[in-house]
User: Which sequence fits this backbone?
């Protein structure tokens, strides 16, 4: 794979600052929530994956870049 994983456009699209992740995580703990998504984009993807049948998720994930 040419270039590094840091250069992937998907990474920039779903980037959430460390401060936002920590803030929302602490808020979720105080509200006794089992899951916390740090942004609307991440939440939308999580919901989409949760709705899809497992076979479809596996097929989609088979096309993701792998670590070398």
Assistant:
């Amino acid at each position: 794979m040419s270039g590094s994983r840091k250069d992937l456009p998907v990474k920039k699209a779903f980037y959430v600052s460390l401060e936002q992740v920590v803030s929302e995580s602490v808020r979720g703990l105080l509200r006794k929530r089992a899951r916390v998504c740090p942004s609307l984009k991440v939440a939308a993807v999580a919901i989409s994956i949760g709705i899809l049948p497992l076979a479809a998720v596996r097929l989609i994930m088979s096309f993701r870049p792998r670590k070398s």
